[in-house]
Amino acid sequence: xxxxxxxxxxxxxxxxxxxxxxxNVYFKAMHDEMQRSMKKLHLKGSPNPxxxxxxxxxxQYDFGASASLGTLYQSxxxxxxxxxxxxxxxxxxxxxxxxxxxENEENIQGTTSKSYEGIRTSLWGLTNQAYLQAxxxxxKKQSYKRQKGxxxxxxxxxxxxxxxxxxxxxxxxxxxxxxxxELVMRLSAKGKEVPGMEDxxxxxxxxxxxxxxxxxxxSFAQYNVQYIDIDWEVSFRTKAGFKWKFQDSVYFSADAxxxxxxxxxxxxxxxxxxxxxxNAPKGSSFLGPVLLMPSAAADLWKDVxxxxxxxxxxxxxxxxxxxxxGSFKNKVGKRVLSNVVNVYDRPRLKTYQGQVLFGFLPIxxxxxxxxxxxxxxxGFLREIPLSSRPFKKGAKSNGHGRFLKGALQExxxxxxxxxxxxxxxxxxxQQLRQxxxxxxxxxxxxxxxxxxxxxxxxxxxxxxDGHKEMVTGLQLESGLSNRSLxxxxxxxxxxxxRNIDWTQSIITPALLLEEMxxxxxxxxxxxxxxxxxx
Amino acid sequence: MKKILLFTFLxxxxxxxxxxxxxxxxxxxxxxxxxxxxxxxPLLKKQKPPIYYLSYTLKNGKENSIYISNQxxxxxxxxxxxxxxxxxxxxxxxxxNTRTLKKKQSDFAVSIQDMPQATSDGKAFTLKVWDATQxxxxxxxxxxxxxQTDVQTASKRGDDSHDFVFPPKETYCHTQxxxxxxxxxxxxxxxxxxxxxxxxxxVLSSSFSLSQEYGHYYxxxxxxxxxxxxxxxxxxSFKVSGRTPEGLSLSRGRIYDVLEEEKLPTEEQLAEDVKxxxxxxxxxxxxxxxxxxxxxxxxxxxxMAVFVHEVLGHRVEGHRxxxxxxxxxxxxxxxxxxxxxxxxxxxxxxxxxxxxxxLRGFYEYDSxxxxxxxxxxxxxxxxxxxxxxxxxIKGFAQSNGHGRAEFEKRPVARMGNTRVIASQTISYEELExxxxxEIKKQGKPYGVIIEDLSGGFTITDTLAPQSFKLEPTYIMxxxxxxxxxxxxxxxxxxxxxxxxxxxxxAADDDAVFNGTCGAESGWVPVSSIAPSVLLxxxxxxxxxxxxxxxxxxxPPMSEVTK
Lengths: 534, 562
Hints:
The complex is a heterodimer.
Chain A: H1 2-18, H2 25-40, E1 49-68, E2 71-72, E3 77-79, E4 82-93, E5 96-97, E6 101-105, H3 116-148, E7 164-166, H4 177-189, E8 197-215, E9 220-237, E10 243-253, H5 259-278, E11 286-292, H6 294-308, E12 341-345, E13 351-352, E14 355-356, E15 373-377, E16 380-381, E17 401-404, E18 407-410, E19 414-419, H7 425-438, E20 443-447, E21 458-462, E22 468-471, E23 474-476, H8 482-486, E24 488-500, E25 504-520
Parallel strand pairs in A: 7-9, 11-20, 19-25
Antiparallel strand pairs in A: 1-2, 1-4, 1-8, 4-5, 4-6, 8-9, 9-10, 11-25, 12-15, 12-19, 13-14, 15-16, 17-18, 20-21, 21-22, 23-25, 24-25
Helix pairs in contact in A: 2-3
Chain B: H1 2-17, H2 28-45, E1 51-69, E2 72-90, E3 109-112, H3 123-153, E4 171-173, H4 183-194, E5 205-221, E6 226-243, E7 249-258, H5 267-286, E8 293-299, H6 301-312, E9 343-347, E10 353-354, E11 357-358, E12 375-379, E13 382-383, E14 403-404, E15 412-413, E16 417-422, H7 428-442, E17 447-458, E18 468-478, E19 484-487, E20 490-494, H8 496-499, E21 503-506, E22 511-519, E23 522-530, E24 533-542, H9 556-561
Parallel strand pairs in B: 4-6, 8-17, 16-23
Antiparallel strand pairs in B: 1-2, 1-5, 2-3, 5-6, 6-7, 8-24, 9-12, 9-16, 10-11, 12-13, 14-15, 17-18, 18-19, 18-20, 20-24, 21-24, 22-23
């Protein structure tokens, strides 16, 4: 009876919100196809769909320019906008569903001419596929339940209060070709001054993404994210013969006034490190205090914290496999970090210091408005991301339900790390040297990256006079663990942004860690070129 | 005599085209690539094992593409490109890194996308060439090491010809001016015409597209060859697809290959063709399913063109006569009758067009820098020659300009423009009459007319039977009383040695099939020209079904229009 009431409420809501939807072809097409599917989509012998979420993503991009060592590339690209669609569908009901199925299609019909017919036709195809798949999963789930005798612990969705979010969408303005060409030529030309540099390419592209979301329970969202993507690729060889090839990207908010200046600063810092790396001596094994620069600190948060602070419900895939839950699941109220930093999740933060945040999310995949979370305060885990999966009795979603990797899971958005008593870089280095001195070490390490494929990661700082020297040929003795989080002794003032997998961002300062163990790398110098560099 | 005249006429455009119209030494990319070749190759030759052959191919050009469906644009782009391919051979011509023994054949080309502009100082460009050369040389040496190990432990090959024959030194410079098509006009036309699919419940998907790709190849090798050649491919096409309730996927469409915008169909012509394709699709869905049978058949010209390409063309590619992993259907049959004596087959990549229709298999020099030339493969039914790349085989020591590859792949022998010439022809109407006679003579309940083939495949390695399977997209039964009935759901199957001897008559209606062929060296544009032919017997078997249900709800627009 209760269930019937809830579903009835949902349908009532759907009639009510139709009038409030943004007035454009995307919402009209989504609304009409959703109404038709909810009313008529039925496969004999299978339960009806009870949840449908449509998400249209309109991508526009303007490929500015690319250059290598000061010379423009031959290539030029102009792309029409792309419209990608996804359908999230669950059949059955909130107590006994199909796990949910997501179908995606890139470049759907009706992109630039905003064809109502085209968009509806694509949504129709995707909804049909998703429903057939959901019906198949539903049957598999019944079979799994019978096999395991599991009635209560299986995932199901608990209806939540639905949210809405609407922004005015800006008009996309392409970037000036001359400006883009001048910038990439100037930045890439800086590579010519670096000894050992074999290639340094820089490219610039401006992106604009309009998001349109609608579900059948009354939630909708319309928003835009615009950014300037600067990518660089580096190929260089150290004097000792080690060859490095890597690439990186930085994403500036299209609204930032000083993005060119910021880009140049990033490139200068990178090339400075590479210059030092060219002549760097080989490092030796080490155990002691280290200073993780913000980019290395982001690696720590990504690999240790974010993995543990997500995915809490009982996650059973369609194959009946139980996925490993994040280890913070049962640690709310317990100490998980040193008390030097507090950690927050801020889903509605769109930019930070001129950079765009991919974790920005106003409404989650269950139509719930996202809420800001205090994840860690004074070292204690206070809140965790929650979806409508009832991981414990009475728990309510806080808008962090994402349908990723084929299943609904709890997912962080933008994590912001704030030092309780932030220190300047000079103060951090001073404290590092003090801690080195306390354990009688001649030098300690400043680590720029924990990514094994990255260059110039290791920098010695000498205890006595504070002079620094890049070294090469080191690696972590063992992988990162929760222990490192509890070893944080101090944190800095300046923060950087790291975007991950298009769905999450990390904003973190530098961190001073009590202890880390490094060992000598086994890597041998790369083969010398047969023909000398031109 | 008639045949000789015909060839003179057809070859005459080649002589007009194959004239240099620029100075190769003035071309900046050639200058930079040559300079790096001169600087690097002498040092590479001294390595152990030596790099004994090196080539650079630079592909510069532009691509305009439009994809439309249901009155909306899916995606369009204009893209300029500049890609470099470096091919290095380590060891010696007798045995090098390209030999395929126990290991699977692998590509030995290194390709770099997005080259810097070849500007006056050329520093960034040259640096990329140098880096790619090092990668290619290291890869060639590594693979050569594997080959040497394999040689020690593998049994002796049936054909122990060398792995490489040096191509002759060539110099040629051909610059062509290209004009961008009016993309907006074509886009508007396709959007408008795509509306014809609206409200058709049997159409599950439709697509309309235009692709224009043009540019120049620059080729430099260690033998001294320096080439610049143009290329252009333009294709407008559409396809409407549906499915029967039993899960059989069906589609109809048209392809228009042109080189000038004026040659594209007008909006009215295109609309007519779309309406006809929609009608054909609807009829096909309603048509009865055919049963497996062995019956006399007409392969209409375009279907015959695909048939020759798939069933015979791939089997006369040179490298398939050499590797023991291939079936070698025709390897020892040179001088023997392999098809009906009615048939002569020539592969002639130098033909730019046929009856005004551009041929996609046209090129001036192949991917190894060897000049294209006509090759008579079969003459009056007797096998004469193979398609050759720079990998020699027993009895065929030189390339005949058929070493082809998708840009980033390793070239092997491939077809260009494959032409079937019948020594005796009749009109198509007479051919149908002959089919009726054959049906009656054999006492068969019906024969079939295969209008169109979408493609298919042929098995050439020894792992599986040396057979082929081709997919007719439009097939009709012809009953002894002259009645025709559209059917669906069958594929053509058979073996090559039998099938080509079944040809008993040919019509005078030669037509072109332009396509893109996929094999070891990737996708290459090809053409095939053939007349309609009558086969004494053809085997049909059930086609694969998807087992997919029809969508639960009809397409949204078909409900609205009701």
